[in-house]
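G., before I forget:
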Amino acid sequence: MKSELDIFREFLKKKGMRYTPEREIIIKEIFSIHDHFDVDSLYISMRKKEARVSKASIYRLIPLLIEANLIEEVFFDRGQMYYEHIYGHEHHCHLRCVNCKQILEFNDPRLKEIERDLADKFNYKILRHKLEVMGLCQKCQDEQE
Amino acid sequence: MKSELDIFREFLKKKGMRYTPEREIIIKEIFSIHDHFDVDSLYISMRKKEARVSKASIYRLIPLLIEANLIEEVFFDRGQMYYEHIYGHEHHCHLRCVNCKQILEFNDPRLKEIERDLADKFNYKILRHKLEVMGLCQKCQDEQE
DNA sequence: GTATCTGCAAACCCTTTGCAATAAG
DNA sequence: CTTATTGCAAAGGGTTTGCAGATAC
């Protein structure tokens, strides 16, 4: 299986764009994070490792990574967007506790069925879906009594 | 069935907050819009009707309406949040064309099943879900050839 | 009467952008 | 060599907030 770097190199070549050291270290950093991230925390964790890139370069890279299907917007909270890398992982959805902010990942085959039915019914070509389920985890339910 | 205004009046009373004419006309405006809205377009459409309220009052009202379960965040796009009123309507999900931005609404009983299974599996009390399906509508598929 | 609410304008903060220097291909 | 990319700092733009006057209760 190709690495995310290979995928991205091909993606850039196809678009007549350049593969730079800055782009490489940002992608490496993103794929080393096994969690959702936002631009600022990514920037800070890179600075700590002496991997200096400007925020502007991160912001400029993100739309490309999304277009290349390497990362995805996960959710928008308190004024900023959170992302996660998706290449090499099975697609999943998020179950979030509205109280303690715990996030669990899950997948369900019925979503593919729903996609197929929507495609048929509305003549859409489905590209992707995003399902967020919000609730209270066991612990937060107990505390509310 | 209680009106959205009654619901909100009770909600405010319970919180020791006040029911003002500004809050009333904003809610009336929101519930007269049968579509998704953002703060700026709401503000503009109110100005046109000589219903003058400040944007600040709209921004300050929105979290209250969400807490009162009268409106919901629908999606975040191009730097701003879109909302819709949900009181008095059946819950639905959104199918969006990523190219022309058309939005279709749908509902699917399988989502309730998924919710039930998640509740059992993770011991969550499910409150709500948000499913966005992104794709290309027929017209935009044709134009891409 | 008193605490909340309003409008205004300024502040905030995440994100985007113009520009001159740099570097990929 | 040519054109894309970088870092910097400034600008953009949706949202929040401090404040003084107005108002719900």
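Helices of chain A lie at 4-14, 21-32, 39-48, 55-67, 109-122, 138-143. The first strand of chain A starts at residue 71 and ends at 77.

More on Monday.
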